[in-house]
Amino acid sequence: MKYRNTVEFEVKGEYGLFSDPITRVGGEKFSYQVPTYEAVKGILHSIYWKPTLIWVIDEVRVMNPIQTETKGARPIKYKDKNKENDLSYYTYLKNCRYQVRAHFIWNENRPELLADRNENKHFSIAKRMIEKGGRRDIFLGARECQGYVEPCVFGEGKGFYDEVPELDFGMMYHGITYADEAYSEETRGKMSVRFWQAVMRKGVLSFLPPWECTHRPVREMNIKPFGSIYKNFSFSEEGGGDKDVLDQPAL
């Protein structure tokens, strides 16, 4: 389904690391074969984001063959500086290229930002930021995996898995639901982790929306208030505002 505020773009990079949380316990990171919902959402946050809205990832199309490359790394031992650093092995995805389709919804947990709910404004800014390659640096799952964004038409061009009927990746990490993006009593006032059954059909991952995933609560969590910052705030088209308000200390 394509929404009226749908954005489409291509993101690519030489390497990607969409970490399987299980492998991070021992300090050696191993990438999933495909991007996680949370990683793609982070890319959209680097392109354009405000607390007024929540990005929902609809689909990701895998354009290049899934390949991995393992590299040796020496992570810093912060707790024991007298000992030598460990040798770890990180397994990256190589030659990554994806097409993304997403849309945004309003964050109902932010009633204090009701005046900023201008769909045309946010949609126009998001499209311009995609054309410019994003507002902040783009990463494919990890800081060392630089990515690049450009506009595209989702579905155009030949993808490596277009003729593959189905690939099942099993139970995958989907993302984290924070208290300020809660959408049910189960997630309200908590930080929860989400999981889903990932299946790629003809090269396309159709993500479940967060509210349809399996949830596991992690801990209690409060919403950070924005009301004191945005009181009497004049929103501009480019996302700026009154200087005397912006100069207030961040929460």
Please outline the helices and strands:
Layout: E1 7-16, H1 21-24, H2 37-47, E2 53-62, E3 68-73, E4 88-106, H3 119-131, E5 138-139, E6 146-151, E7 167-177, E8 190-201, E9 204-206, E10 214-220, H4 227-230, H5 243-246
Antiparallel strand pairs: 1-4, 1-6, 2-4, 2-9, 3-4, 5-6, 7-8, 8-9, 8-10
Entry summary:
This protein has 251 residues and is of the alpha+beta class.
Overall description:
The structure is a single chain. Helix content is 14%, strand content 34%. By secondary structure, it is of the alpha+beta class. It has a domain at 7-172 and 200-208: Alpha-Beta Plaits (2-Layer Sandwich). Strands 1, 2, 3, 4, 5, 6, 7, 8, 9 and 10 form a ten-stranded antiparallel beta sheet that branches. The longest helix has 13 residues, at 119-131. It starts with 6 loop residues before the first strand and ends in a 5-residue tail after the last helix. The model is unreliable at 229-251 (pLDDT under 50).
